[in-house]
Amino acid sequence: MQFKPLSLALALALAPAAHAENLSAVFQDAQAYDAQYAAARAAYQAGQEKAVQGRAGLLPNVNLGGNAQYNKIDSSLPGGDADFASNGLSLNATQPLFRKQNMVQYEQSKQQVKIAEMQLKVAEQDLILRVAQAYFDVLQSQDNIAFINAQKSAISEQLASAKRNFEVGTATITDTHEAQARYDLAVAQEIAEQNSLAIRLRALEKLIGKPPGALDIFVEPGALKVEAESIDTWAARATEGNLQAEIQRIAKTIADQEVERNRAGHYPTLDAVAGYTINNNQNFGTMQVDTRAASIGVQLNLPIYQGGLVNSRVREAVANQEKARQDLEAATRDASLQARQAWLNVSSGAARVKALEQALTSTQAQLDSTKLGLQVGVRTSLDVLNAEQQVLSARRDLAGARYAYLLAGLSLKAAVGSLNPADLAEIDQHLKPAAQ
Hints:
The chain has helices spanning 8-14, 23-33, 35-56, 100-168, 173-208, 231-241, 243-263, 309-376, 381-415, 421-428; strands at residues 17-21, 61-73, 82-98, 213-215, 217-218, 269-284, 287-301, 431-432. The protein has two domains: 8-58 and 99-267 and 303-432, Outer membrane efflux proteins (OEP); 59-98 and 268-302, Single Sheet (Outer membrane efflux proteins (OEP)). 30% of the residues are buried. The strands form three sheets. It has a four-stranded antiparallel sheet with strand order 2-3-6-7, with no helix packed on it. A two-stranded parallel sheet has the order 1-4. The chain is 66% helix and 17% strand. By secondary structure, it is an alpha+beta fold. Strand 2 (61-73) and strand 3 (82-98) form a beta hairpin. The longest helix is centred in the N-terminal third of the chain and has 69 residues, at 100-168. Helix 3 (35-56) runs antiparallel to helix 4, helix 4 runs antiparallel to helix 9 and helix 6 (231-241) packs antiparallel against helix 8. The two termini are 17 Å apart. The radius of gyration is 38 Å and the shape is elongated.
């Protein structure tokens, strides 16, 4: 018996778009619309400016200043009174020659740019997982409704048969009541699952900003591929490649540099300086004169004592350095645990799919035998109904196990930092438009 993933009427009501969509298409829509990913993209763009800001501490600093003022002088000296306006203009430039703090800060800024890049990749992986989860949730609800509809159809046939047999006296009213009860329960289950489907469609719509079209469904796959590498190998890969662990690794580098930057507060600074000043109508006794002054040279500053500020900042940076080290250790352990959990989910998921495939074969054989038994009089219509429900249940569980397996595979790749949109395209190869 072939089952469609969703009845035509329900498809038209809940998925009005005519074109089919696969995982990659849905992900592209989510990239363009999802607010969480858009925020991460904006944060990445902001993070790119850290390098520019850090480099600024190594480049010249040029300032232009000016003044215009009115002056009134009362003096006891003969002719010392003055009433005049004056103005001035100054241009000053400073080029750091040696500022250890600025050099370290520039190196820190480059690490901050790397963190921004890693955070964007994390957001992309998170979006991939959220899209896949929402997509599979919709397919699961569609499958559940299809199975319930098929179950209702089978129960309806059995109910009609039970009524006919009761009328001719070959069956008791118990068979009729049993079939009616199961039919009513299936109706209630269908209502609940339709509500669940509507909610899951809205969740997918939240990601892509529009009602999703008819989603592609899975073709019958062959044997699922089980990861050949050992769980320890995947865990080791996660400690090296996990993006959250990499972010903490970069943060540890920044913390190390912060200690160096604060220790540089004891170091001297050396700058090249140049200036040009114009002053008009400056008062010199009874005369107002204009002056022009130009200067160029170097300026040395050696901090001697700042009230213990530098030493305190160094101690603070050392404590934060230890915090960053512990955060890195925690992130590395989490990455290893995530990889192990995902590997176990993949491995057990593949085994569960295989077992459910065998269960489906067995329940189908049982159904065929029960139908034959009904024809020869050794089985009842209720036995057939029970066998049909077992087949439908096995189909539903098998579909859910396949979705869980695929999600576990994506999670495993995310744990080691290798998840990317190409993995969705690989799943798309096993999708096809649903039959209308």
